[in-house]
Write a structure and sequence with these properties.
Layout: H1 2-27, H2 29-65, E1 71-76, E2 80-81, E3 84-85, H3 96-105, E4 109-124, E5 127-136, H4 140-144, E6 148-151, H5 156-160, E7 165-168, H6 170-177, E8 186-189, E9 192-200, E10 215-219, H7 220-228, E11 235-240, H8 246-260, E12 271-275, H9 276-319, H10 321-329, H11 334-370, H12 379-405, H13 409-414
Parallel strand pairs: 5-10, 7-9
Antiparallel strand pairs: 1-11, 1-12, 2-3, 4-5, 4-8, 4-11, 6-9, 7-10, 8-9
Helix pairs in contact: 1-11, 2-9, 2-11, 2-12, 9-11, 9-12, 11-12
């Protein structure tokens, strides 16, 4: 019973101190509001900047995921002509035999799709559209984890016979056929008519901002024999069964290609391998650093707000010196005086932190409305910003509170 009474008494004293502190702040509403403004801006900035960083990370993760599951992309090396580097994929080093050997000899590989690409002019339904033609295997959609909204994918038989069949991206289908059903219709690329067998589900922008939906997918054999005339591949995509097998599959893939290309130990690779996991990890590391940097920059305004709180509380102690002396003279202990001023500083921070959180969430909504970007406000960032604002109230309010508690009552009563 005694412990309960002590607890109730402590709670009552804390409530009384908080009430007195709130009343003191209300006496100078304008000054209190301006003092809290630094905390409001700081918390709002932290919440907004962290939300922008989180949104950037989620967008990059979705773009990496749109490449497919457990993907290894193999590109031909670069060629040089007269000292000019033509860039990755320009060398004639990768062959269909390489892709077939990878599918046949490397454990853990479940699908391979040789790839040739070219910009083409497509004509259908009285319309024409400049788009990208991609020559792929029948496994391309499973590798890219890309469903169809209508029709079917071409088959292994279509690849072996270099059939004139095509699957359209949603953007290309819309530009050429509008609301009409393109399945079974014909689209002409150059002088070659292709029968449309399917339409891909929309995926939007991919890595590098390229619209993935603006494409025509045909068998790679058809593209090489009838469109591009290429004898070599620019690249091919490899899907591994499990993410845990990615590193080993990459090592085996590299060794196999070096063996097939008869590269001596002192010669560098004439191909490049891009590991989807490594791309995702690198992207996440970069966005993490950017988010931390943005949060750190925004936190400077929190520090400035804390200094403002300390300044105003010191002014308040000076203005209320006589009041402090009277309270001590009638029995107020220094600990209670210290608690009151500390409570005032914390209230300024708490009120500013609450308004700042709402402001940051509002700013994130504004960014989403006016830009093609979705900031992600997380509970963690809100808790962090609010917690830091409380800590700043305690840290910067402690010195003025201690100064008030250490005033000599007699000297305080004499203060004019």
């Amino acid at each position: 019973m005694t412990a309960r009474s002590a607890l109730v008494g402590t709670a009552a004293r804390c409530w009384l101190v908080a009430t007195i502190a709130l009343r003191a702040l209300r006496r100078n509403m304008l000054r209190s509001g301006l003092t809290s403004l630094g905390i409001i801006i700081g918390v709002a900035s932290v919440v907004t900047m962290v939300a922008v960083g989180n949104g950037a990370r989620e967008r990059i993760e979705s773009q990496v995921a749109s490449l497919g599951q457990n993907l290894l992309a193999v590109f031909a090396g670069s060629s040089r002509t007269g000292g000019v580097n033509a860039g990755a994929g320009s060398a004639s080093t990768l062959t269909i035999g390489d892709a077939e050997a990878v599918a046949r000899e490397i454990a853990g590989v479940v699908a391979v799709s040789p790839e040739v690409t070219r910009s083409v002019q497509a004509v259908a339904n009285g319309r024409n559209w400049s788009t990208n033609l991609a020559g792929e295997s029948e496994d391309y959609l499973s590798i890219r984890d890309w469903p169809l909204t209508a029709g079917t994918m071409f088959t292994d038989r279509d690849v072996r016979t270099a059939a004139k069949v095509a699957v359209l991206g949603s953007k290309t289908a819309n530009e050429l056929f509008g609301p009409l059903d393109p399945i079974g219709q014909s689209v002409r690329v150059g002088e070659i008519p292709f029968v449309i067998t399917g339409v891909l589900k929309s995926k939007g922008a991919g890595m590098g901002g390229q619209n993935q939906d603006d494409r025509i997918v045909v068998p790679y054999t058809t593209a090489m024999r009838r469109i591009t005339g290429d004898q070599y591949l620019r690249s091919f995509n490899v899907q591994v069964a499990s993410s845990s097998d990615m590193a080993e599959a990459e090592r085996e893939l590299k060794a196999l290609l070096r063996q097939r290309h008869k590269l001596a130990a002192d010669r560098s690779d004439d191909f490049n391998i891009f590991n989807q996991q490594e791309i995702a990890e690198t992207a996440n590391a970069i966005t993490g650093i950017v988010t931390l940097l943005l949060g750190a920059i925004a936190s400077i305004s929190l520090l400035v707000g804390g200094i403002g709180i300390m300044n105003i509380m010191l002014v308040s102690v000076t203005e209320r010196t006589r009041e402090i002396g009277i309270r001590m003279a009638v029995g107020a202990r220094p600990a209670i005086v210290q608690l009151q001023f500390l409570c005032e500083a914390m209230l300024l921070s708490l009120i500013g932190g609450g308004i700042g959180v709402l402001g940051g969430m509002g700013a994130a909504r504004v960014i989403k409305a006016v830009a093609d970007f979705t900031p992600v406000v997380s509970i963690g960032s809100i808790a962090l910003a609010f917690g830091v604002s409380c800590a700043i109230g305690i840290f910067f309010g402690l010195y003025p509170a201690r100064k008030a508690a250490r005033l000599d009552p007699i000297e305080a009563l004499r203060y004019e």
